[in-house]
């Protein structure tokens, strides 16, 4: 592909089946195998069972990469995430907001003037004593967040009230609340992007970035990513894949599949499988270029209802959670 891969997309389903009926009596067709993500009801790898690996046809629905599809374009792909805190702009969770310190505050703690001000403003109470009384256990955790190896640039005050995890972000030298955590998550302006790096940096374990691709949310920092494949108008697409592309490109009002491909700069989609390690739910990410802008959509692997869209390289509709290490 002509551009560096940077991000990712939004709707569409499972990866394609390119081919015809499988050999053997009672064997599923490749289209049928694609609907079940290349697995039998008992979990067998259908591509291995029926010899579809290396059979001369690119079968992107297989459990493992099919050598007929060529080498993966970006095997070191990883997710990164940014959230907007106040007027400071977007902060990267990995580079700007790593965990640099932890402190537990109690009524007996020797608080600084800034900390006292933070507690009164952040909890909207009349005094520091009232702030601690507002919590379930009389304790408030203070997390210093900032670039690794440096002083904290943001403080997160986190506590429990009515068995609910809440908190707020402030600057160490200011009293303005930059963002609030409600019920364990920052439901503010956060976006996720897919990047490639020769030496990818693992996201810190303290963060959880959930995007609501299903009823429970999918933790993108843990999601399993498949190799990305380029799909052109001459690809042997399953009926599900065709419906996914048409659904994802609905804003262009395509009269046919050919119109959907024509709406992209390259006449192609770049498709990647995504699997939630917690639930096992599978999704497909379709991305493409329109006006030199990277856009796309995410769909369930076996359906065509668009769950999220990619705009200018970023996947929105996510919330940031902080997990105690």
Please give a handful of descriptors for the protein shown.
single chain; 325 residues; alpha+beta; 2 domains; seven-stranded antiparallel sheet; five-stranded antiparallel sheet; 6 helices; 19 strands; elongated; disordered N terminus
Task: Note down, in words, how this protein is organized.
The chain is of the alpha+beta class and 325 residues long. The protein has 2 domains: 1-14 and 70-81 and 187-325, no CATH class; 86-177, no CATH class. 13% of the residues lie in helices and 31% in strands. It has 6 helices and 19 strands. The chain has helices spanning 30-35, 46-49, 113-123, 128-133, 239-248, 257-262; strands spanning 77-84, 90-92, 98-105, 140-146, 154-161, 164-170, 179-181, 185-186, 190-196, 207-211, 218-219, 224-225, 229-231, 269-275, 282-290, 293-300, 308-311, 314-315, 318-322. The strands form 4 sheets. Strands 12, 13, 14, 15, 16, 17 and 18 form a 7-stranded antiparallel beta sheet that branches. Strand 1 (77-84) and strand 2 form a beta hairpin. The protein starts with 29 loop residues before the first helix and ends with a strand.
What Rg, in angstroms, do the CA atoms define? 23 Å
Please indicate the count of domains.
2
Largest sheet properties: 7 strands, antiparallel
Order of helices and strands: HHEEEHHEEEEEEEEEEHHEEEEEE
Number of strands: 19
Q: What structural class should be given to the helix and strand makeup?
A: alpha+beta
* Quaternary state of the chains: single chain
Strand content: 25-35%
The proportion of residues forming helix, as a percent range, comes to 10-25%
List segments where confidence is low: pLDDT < 50 over at least 5 consecutive residues: 1-24
Straight-line distance between termini: 40 Å
Question: How would you describe the shape?
Answer: elongated
